[in-house]
C-alpha cells in the first residue's frame, strides 16, 4: 500500500475549496482540513465544510474560532452591505468590499502551524486568479511570497526537515473549468455553499459576486447547479 503524505487543506465549504480538497485526495494525500469561524456573515458555510470534509474522506477536520469582526473593514465582517447584481466587468476591476483584510495570510499562517505540528510539507488552497472578484491574496505572486516566507519562518524549514509547498491547483482555471473538474472528481455540488449573503435558512441570495460567478460557471460548463437561489 502506498503511504499517503499528509497535507493541510483550507476548506471554506465553497465550490473552489471543495474541489481543491478533491484534487488533493486524488493525488493520494492524507488531508487534514481546516476551516475558520471568523465572524463571517455567511457562517452557514461551516456546515458545508463539515459535510464536504466527511464526504471526501478528510483524516480530521478542525474549525478555528478567530473573530475578524474586531477589525471589520469588509462586508463579510461588518455592517457594510454586500454588493449585488454587479456585472462581470465591474468584478474584474478594483478590490471589492467583500475582501477581508489579510484573510488568506491569516488562514495560511494557521495552516502552516498545523502542518509543522503534523510534519506535513504540503498546504492546499483553492484560490483562483482568472475568474475571481479581485482579491489581492488570490494572486500567484502572493502565494509564491507566502511559500518563501514559510520556509524561512518555521523550525522545520530552518532545520531542513520539511520544505513547505503551497498548492493552488485551481489558480489558472475559469469558474466553468472548476465546475467541470469538480464533476469529474465526484464533488457533491449540493453540499457546497458559495453565497456571501444567505438568508436565515441558508439559501443563496443569487446576486452577490460569489453567487453570480458560480451561476456563470455552471452555465458555461453546461451543468445544473443544485443549489436554491433567491434571485
Describe this structure in words.
The mean pLDDT is 93. The protein has one domain (5-221): Rossmann fold (3-Layer(aba) Sandwich), CATH 3.40.50.620. Strands 3-2-1-4-5 form a five-stranded parallel sheet, with helices on both faces. α1 packs across α7 and α7 (175-184) packs across α8 (209-221). With 231 residues, the protein is of the alpha/beta class. α1 (15-26) links the parallel β1 (5-10) and β2 (29-37). Helices cover 37% and strands 12% of the residues.
Q: In summary, what is this structure?
A:
The protein has eight helices and five strands, in the order E-H-E-H-E-H-H-E-H-H-E-H-H. By secondary structure, the protein is of the alpha/beta class. A five-stranded parallel beta sheet has the order 3-2-1-4-5, with helices on both faces.
Secondary structure elements and pairings:
Blueprint: E1 5-10, H1 15-26, E2 29-37, H2 45-55, E3 60-65, H3 88-91, H4 103-118, E4 122-124, H5 140-153, H6 155-159, E5 165-167, H7 175-184, H8 209-221
Parallel strand pairs: 1-2, 1-4, 2-3, 4-5
Amino acid at each position: 500500500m502506498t503511504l499517503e503524505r499528509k497535507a493541510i487543506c483550507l476548506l471554506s465549504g465553497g465550490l473552489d475549496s471543495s474541489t481543491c480538497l478533491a484534487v488533493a485526495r486524488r493525488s493520494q494525500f492524507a488531508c487534514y482540513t481546516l476551516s475558520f469561524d471568523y465572524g463571517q456573515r455567511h457562517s452557514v458555510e461551516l456546515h458545508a465544510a463539515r459535510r464536504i470534509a466527511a464526504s471526501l474522506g478528510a483524516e480530521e477536520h478542525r474549525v478555528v474560532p478567530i473573530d475578524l469582526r474586531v477589525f471589520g473593514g469588509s462586508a463579510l465582517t461588518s455592517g457594510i452591505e454586500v454588493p449585488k447584481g454587479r456585472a462581470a466587468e465591474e468584478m474584474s476591476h478594483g478590490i471589492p468590499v467583500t475582501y477581508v483584510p489579510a484573510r488568506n495570510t491569516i488562514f495560511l499562517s494557521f495552516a502552516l502551524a498545523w502542518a509543522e505540528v503534523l510534519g506535513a510539507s504540503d498546504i492546499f488552497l483553492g484560490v483562483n486568479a482568472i475568474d475571481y472578484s479581485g482579491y489581492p491574496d488570490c494572486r500567484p505572486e502572493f502565494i509564491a511570497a507566502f511559500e518563501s516566507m514559510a520556509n524561512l519562518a518555521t523550525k522545520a524549514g530552518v532545520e531542513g526537515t520539511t520544505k513547505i509547498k503551497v498548492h493552488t491547483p485551481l489558480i489558472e482555471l475559469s469558474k466553468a473549468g472548476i465546475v467541470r473538474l469538480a464533476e469529474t472528481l465526484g464533488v457533491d455540488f449540493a453540499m457546497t455553499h458559495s453565497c456571501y449573503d444567505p438568508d436565515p435558512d441558508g439559501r443563496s441570495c443569487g446576486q452577490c459576486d460569489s453567487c453570480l460567478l458560480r451561476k456563470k460557471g455552471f452555465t458555461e460548463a453546461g451543468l445544473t447547479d443544485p443549489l436554491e437561489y433567491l434571485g
